[in-house]
UniProtKB/TrEMBL annotation:
It comes from the Bacteria. Keywords: Cell outer membrane, Membrane, Receptor, Signal, Transmembrane, Transmembrane beta strand, Transport. It is found in: Cell outer membrane. GO terms for molecular function: siderophore uptake transmembrane transporter activity. This is TonB-dependent receptor. InterPro entries: Beta-barrel_TonB_sf, CarboxyPept-like_regulatory, Plug_dom, Plug_dom_sf, TonB-dep_rcpt-like. It comes from Chitinophaga oryzae.
Length: 850
């Protein structure tokens, strides 16, 4: 007998005809609506009936020539606790807990906690996590206790074999548009300058871009970098890059896992339009001291972790420091000359520390601190200019740029009972940048001298309090609810310029002061993962928030809906609708994103941004868990987008009246994403493709017509492969291709007298006055790049050593960083030139783990 996706009632009717029996039952007491798929050949009737009726707790009794059906209500019990690493005690988020007899299960939350209500006669549960040996958990007598479930890690990454129970399959997750990234996936990617990188790995996913080579930022489904909510252990981060995006803010060795939401946002997240990147950091080993040290070509790092009080208190400390090198100086080049001769001095550092303390089986506390900073200085040596009537002029200049983050968080986990878990947190986040410029000139013959000095400073900081609750009353429901309040402080900008060479010192411009602005944001949310029927699941939620600024109160009600329907052969159809709101904006130039972009809040004139996004797709994980396939389409509309009415930047505008220099409009992003991933065997990796559009419309720009925006990349292809070679070698390669981004270029120009541009020193004092016809009227060259890497590892008695050789941009593709107009002094013509900053970059890194 073969039956596909039919109700139990229909199966019973078939059995009545084939076996000559009759089922007797009360329709009010026995539910036979569940759809089943049955394949049975030469199977005993009794075993077939047990297979059909057991999941619904239906018992059958033979009375004469009838089978009497009764639906029995079994008593239930709740099993809860933490899943952790058996060696270190590290809690494991996203671990799977599964009851095979009931075909039901759950996963641990961000803190490793789980709660599963099962029938009383369930004997055991299967607990599994990627990279760990699955464990069988006996549950007899374990109700009303908080369990600690240890999982043994596999010996090495080279021995990881993903089994069918290692992770929740895509078709079993109601959540769509989500990417889960364990540390192993980050470490296996090709390394730029020897560094594994979380954000660069996320950029290799469909629907996610990182902009031009050498530029920081994350562009998700046509959104801008400021539309991404990046959380580090629950604390928001406002700039997540070092070295203009070459490195991420965090040392990858302290990252436990990362989750990227591109859409279908759960109600617990809010405040951004395009994505959520939720990063969980390691808590520290509770039982053993260990760490690692790595030395690369331009940076070095170390990590150490261990117990302060064994099985009670642990710590983890990580630090990195880059150092200037001729290699980096060689990467800064153009297709022509780059100003006067001089030097480049650049470095970054970051320190991350975390303490984890267990007060009791029900209470634990986490304290985490982060401090990181970048510094860049470009200095030209004294240079003698061409002689003039008065003699010779010596000139020198110095430009400094610095930016950094200071982050702190305190979290308290508490278990009220086996079904209710809470996390209360206090967090602080500050982002600041500064620039300084000094230009000196001296004419010895006349004694005339000039010492121009300018500085610019901006800062933003947040202080927040949040309470989150996780309530799991039954396998069919999983509630999350919570509330938060955040105090925002903005110092958009302070500019000061003077001539220190004049007597007395002459202030040139002290009027560009940004206002000190304070705002308060409040939110409430509730969401429920709900099993509606045997094949239909939903994630329903609502996020409501308000923002008080300058005496005005903005509020928003944001519904979230996610649906999943199971099709035959374990295919899942998913759909979602999300409404998102954002109260802060990033003032950016029309070019690439830089650390000098300024954060500002909504004002009386500029209302909060908000978006509505719908998405639909299909997903499936193969039976042996070797392959995953996803296909999604989305359409997003964005409102209250801002853009400078001209092509200026925050530094060139008076930030005290910044909202008078922007226009407000709408945006659209839509497209499709496909991905196939191989995650089992010696060869793993994925292929992703994105077809996307991103457009904007402003009443006072481009004559009010819709135009492609700077994040509009029509086609994007990502191919990532990892090959294990024996027990000690691992090779990886990634190839990236994306359509060029739109640019705004003049359509005509005419010459006039003026000061030569530093980008165009050969114009003899003539300047070009440009005429523009619309915004983003030109498309840059396509970007593509191949990166490769190979790692050799060997286990010693007490430590493990590894060598990594990586090559970034193997075939030395000259991808653009920025474009500018250059003039040929002989031909008296201008042409488009580009700056490239990331040529072929080989790197070698030596590391030891002890």
């Amino acid at each position: 007998m073969v039956v596909k996706d039919q109700p139990l009632k229909a199966v019973c009717e078939i059995l009545e005809k084939e076996y000559g029996i009759h089922f007797s039952y009360s329709r009010e007491l026995v539910d036979l609506s569940r759809k089943v798929t049955v394949t049975a050949y030469q199977q005993r009737l009794k075993s077939l009936l047990e297979q059909l009726f057991a999941p619904d707790d239906i018992r059958f009794t033979r009375v004469g020539d009838q089978l009497v059906l009764q639906q029995v209500k079994r008593t239930t019990r709740t099993i809860s606790g933490y899943v952790q690493d058996a060696v270190s005690g590290e809690k494991l988020p996203g671990a799977t807990i599964y009851a095979p007899t009931l075909k039901q299960g759950t996963t641990t939350n961000q803190y490793g906690f789980f709660s599963l209500t099962t029938v009383k006669d369930t004997n055991s549960l299967i607990v599994s996590y990627v990279g760990y040996e699955p464990a069988l958990l006996p549950v007899e007598g374990q109700a009303n206790r908080i369990l600690l479930v240890p999982l043994e890690p596999l010996a090495s990454l080279q021995e990881v074999v993903v089994s069918a129970t290692d992770k929740t399959k895509l078709q079993d997750q109601t959540q769509m548009s989500r990417v889960h990234l364990p540390l192993a996936a980050v470490q296996s990617m090709p390394k730029l300058l020897g560094e594994a990188d979380v954000m660069r790995t996320l950029q290799s996913m469909p629907g996610v871009g990182g902009g031009m080579d050498g530029a920081g930022g994350l562009h998700v489904r046509g959104g801008s970098p400021d539309q991404n909510l990046i959380l580090m252990d629950g604390t928001p981060v406002f700039n997540f890059s070092h070295f203009f995006g070459v490195y991420s803010l965090l040392n990858a060795e302290v990252v436990k896992s990362a989750d990227l939401y591109k859409g279908a946002f759960p109600a617990r997240f809010g405040g951004r339009l395009s994505s959520v990147v939720d990063i969980s950091l390691k808590d520290g080993d509770m039982r053993h001291y260990h760490g690692d040290v790595a030395i690369g070509m331009i940076s070095a790092k170390f990590n150490v972790e261990g117990p302060i009080i064994k099985d009670k208190t642990s710590f983890i400390v990580s630090a990195r420091r880059s150092y200037p090198d001729l290699l980096y100086n060689a990467t800064l080049r153009t297709d022509g000359d780059f100003g006067r001769a001089g030097s480049l001095y650049a470095y970054f550092y970051d320190v991350n520390a975390k303490i984890n303390h267990i007060f009791s089986a029900k209470d634990r506390i986490y304290l985490s601190i982060y401090k990181g900073e970048d510094n860049l200085m470009v200095r030209s040596v004294p240079d003698t200019a061409l002689p003039d009537a008065a003699g010779r002029v010596t000139e020198s200049s110095r430009f400094q740029l610095g930016w950094g983050n200071t982050i702190g968080g305190l979290r308290w986990n508490h278990i009220y009972n086996t079904r209710l878990f809470s996390n209360v947190s206090v967090n602080y986040s500050q982002y600041a940048f500064r620039t300084e410029y000094n230009f000196k000139s001296k004419m010895p013959a006349t004694g005339q001298a000039s010492d121009l000095y300018g500085k610019y400073f901006s800062r933003m900081k947040n202080l927040g309090l949040k309470a989150d609750f996780d309530f799991r009353p039954s396998p069919d429901h999983s509630f999350r609810f919570g509330a938060a309040v955040t105090a925002h402080y903005f110092k958009p900008g302070l500019m000061d310029m003077s001539d220190k060479g004049a007597t007395p010192v002459t202030p040139l411009d002290t009027g560009k002061y940004g206002l000190d602005i304070r705002g308060t944001e409040m939110l409430l949310y509730v969401e429920d993962d709900w099993r509606l029927t045997e094949n239909l699941y939903a994630n329903l939620g609502v996020h409501t928030s308000g923002f008080l600024v300058e005496g005005r109160f903005y509020y928003s009600l944001q519904p979230r809906i996610g649906l999943r329907y199971m099709l035959p052969r374990n295919w899942a159809v998913k759909a979602s609708y999300t409404h998102m709101n954002q109260y802060i904006h990033l003032l950016s130039s029309a070019g690439t994103s830089l650390p000098t972009d300024v954060w500002v809040p909504s004002t009386q004139r500029v209302a909060p941004m908000y978006s509505r996004q719908v998405a639909a797709g299909i997903a499936k994980t193969s039976m042996n868990n070797a392959f995953e396939f996803t296909l999604e389409g989305y359409y997003k509309t964005m409102y209250n987008m801002i853009e400078y009415s001209n092509n200026n930047t925050a530094i060139t505008e008076n930030l005290e009246r910044w909202d008078e220099n922007v226009v407000i409009g709408k945006g659209w992003s839509y497209g499709g994403e496909a991905m196939i991933k191989k995650q089992k065997g010696s060869t793993t990796g994925w292929v992703g493709y994105t077809l996307a559009w991103s457009t904007r419309q402003f009443p006072d720009i481009n004559r009010g017509h819709i135009f492609p925006y700077k994040y509009d990349h029509r086609h994007d292809v990502e191919i990532v492969l990892t090959q294990r070679i024996g027990r000690r070698w691992e090779a990886s390669a990634s190839w990236h291709y994306t359509t060029g981004a739109p640019l705004t270029l003049p359509v005509s120009s005419y010459q006039g007298a003026g000061t030569p541009s530093p980008w165009d020193p050969g114009n003899g004092g003539d300047v070009s006055l440009d005429r523009y016809d619309g915004r983003y009227n030109y498309r840059a060259a396509d970007v593509h790049r191949l990166d490769v890497g190979i790692t050799y590892s060997k286990q010693k008695k007490r430590w493990r050593k590894s060598w990594n050789l990586s090559v970034y941009n193997v075939y030395n593709q000259k991808n653009p960083f920025l474009y500018y107009m250059k003039r040929d002094p002989e031909e008296k013509q201008r042409y488009l030139s580009k700056v490239t900053v990331m040529p072929i970059l080989p790197s070698i890194t030596y590391s030891i783990k002890f």
